[in-house]
Specification:
Largest sheet: 8 strands, antiparallel
CATH class of one domain: Mainly Beta
CATH topology of one domain: conserved putative lor/sdh protein from methanococcus maripaludis s2 fold
Number of strands: 26
Number of helices: 9
Oligomer: single chain
Radius of gyration: 47 Å
CATH architecture of one domain: Beta Barrel
Low-confidence stretches: 228-245, 458-465
Length: 469
């Protein structure tokens, strides 16, 4: 390549570079010219996006509040009991709920007068037993013989008394007859009591003394509990709610069939009266100090019954308190029980000439027990839906007309139903706080902040937004 050619190429490259610089300068003329004007300093942050402050205020129309179901109430300081939840169940109360009916003697079930589900009262006939007991037969025979012997001795005594007065027979003979008469009367009384315990009534025993032996006996429903213990435990409410004045049992189970041979003392049936029951709680050992303290102080316990149709029953006006704690631990689930008395409610209806009883609470029904453990004074209590959390922060919403302000609060305690807020000045008494929908309100605010809108922009029910007027 010659020297002239090289020189031409260098000039060509120079011209191309110069043309590129001129073109770039022309395109960016407005930007670099500001540096040449005196007293002018470019504002680099003018076109930068402004920082959007965190949304704290929201405006909702009346329609929007209705759509969210928002309800606000004035905040009032109060006392709240912190509780622990313990599972439980309704159980029978031993010695009060169920009554066993046993056979008084050896016999064969010849008639069954009641069946499971039937309602009976004390003294109602349950079974008829045909006696095959040699003991009862011999006792009846001995009673009859003793009665006849007494009659003979009495007749002999009348005859001898006249002879003793004339001196024909010594007085010692009369004394001997009196002694025999007393022995026979004592034997008769023993036989009578024995037959009474075997199920015979006074009319039947009187018939035995006349030679009419009993071949079958009736088994009746047992009498009510003694008034002293029943009134103390049941609060004088032993009656079913049908206006009657007698205790009602339900035939819960039959233990024998027609024609079954039974022994003396054998269980024939089980009668139930579910008026006096227990709510049995199942707690762990670490809960024992709380339960013991609650039992000692008589603190009331809130009970939630599963599957309870409370709308169809009268209000349950009863204070639930722990009666006693079990002193043994279940080896299978490592829990120990505590017991709360429960006075049941009942209704009755008639069908085909029979009365049937329906109980509100039934053994086996599950329950949730709220046991108080700590008293929190001068606090605000709100429903659980009135609070929303963002990490460690917790917020409630104050309503002021159409505006809702988000306020940070300090949560002392919360459970499935309620939340307890400290009265530390973040919420003052009298402020109207939203009782629900806090999560929905907070989502609107978060969406508002994410969209880049200013924090004081509010949202209508139709979704339109605008700045304050």
């Amino acid at each position: 390549m010659t020297h002239s050619v090289k020189r031409f190429i260098c000039w060509l490259i120079f011209l191309l570079v110069t043309a590129g610089v001129i073109a770039v300068a022309t395109i960016s003329r407005d930007r670099w010219m500001t540096y040449l004007r005196p007293g002018t300093i470019p504002n680099l942050a003018e076109n930068a996006p402004q920082t959007v402050q965190e949304a704290k205020v929201l405006k909702l129309s009346a329609q929007a509040r209705k759509n969210l179901g928002l309800v606000s109430r004035a905040a009032k300081p109060q006392t709240y009991w912190r509780t622990i939840q313990i599972p439980g169940a309704v159980t029978d109360r031993p010695g009060k709920s169920d009554r066993g009916v046993t056979s008084p003697a050896v016999g064969i079930v010849s008639q069954v007068h009641v069946f499971p589900g039937d309602t009976v009262h004390p003294g109602d006939r349950l079974f008829t037993l045909r006696l095959i007991s040699e003991y009862i037969q011999s006792t009846q025979s001995d009673l009859f013989k003793a009665t006849r012997e007494t009659q003979l001795i009495s007749e002999e005594k009348v005859r001898i008394e006249a002879l003793a007065k004339t001196g024909t027979i010594p007085g010692s003979k009369l004394i001997e007859l009196n002694q025999q008469l007393r022995r026979q009367q004592a034997a008769i009384e023993g036989y009578r009591q024995d037959l009474l315990t075997r199920g015979l009534n006074t009319d039947q025993i009187k018939g035995v003394t006349e030679g009419h032996f009993v071949a079958s006996i009736e088994v009746f429903a047992p009498p009510a509990l003694p008034e002293s213990s029943a009134s103390a435990e049941l609060g004088n409410e032993k009656l079913i709610d049908n206006g009657t004045k007698s205790l009602a049992y339900e035939v819960q189970e039959l233990k024998v069939d027609l024609g079954t041979q039974v022994q003396a003392g054998q269980l024939l049936s089980v009668l139930a009266n579910h008026h006096s029951l227990y709510i049995t709680g199942h707690a762990f050992k670490q809960d024992a100090p709380y339960l013991e303290k609650g039992a000692q102080n008589g603190w009331p316990i809130k009970v939630e019954f599963a599957e309870d149709d409370h709308e169809y029953w009268p209000t349950l006006n009863q204070t639930f308190q722990i009666r006693h704690l079990a002193n043994s631990i279940n080896t299978e689930n490592r829990t120990f029980d505590f017991f709360i008395p429960l006075i049941n409610q009942s209704r009755s209806y008639d069908q085909q000439g029979q009365t049937f009883v329906v109980w509100r609470f039934r053994p086996g029904q599950r329950a949730r027990l709220h046991v108080p453990v700590e008293e929190l004074k001068d606090v605000f209590v709100l429903p659980a839906a009135a609070i929303v959390r963002e990490g460690p922060e917790a917020f409630v919403f104050r309503q002021n007309g159409d505006l809702f302000n988000r306020l940070p609060v300090h949560v002392l305690h919360e459970d499935r139903l309620s939340v307890v807020i400290a009265n530390d000045g973040s919420v003052t008494p009298g402020l109207y706080l939203a009782q629900s929908g806090a999560a929905s309100l907070n989502r609107v605010l978060k969406a508002q902040a994410a969209s880049g809108m200013r924090a004081d922009v509010h949202v209508h029910a139709d979704g339109t937004t605008h700045a304050p007027h």
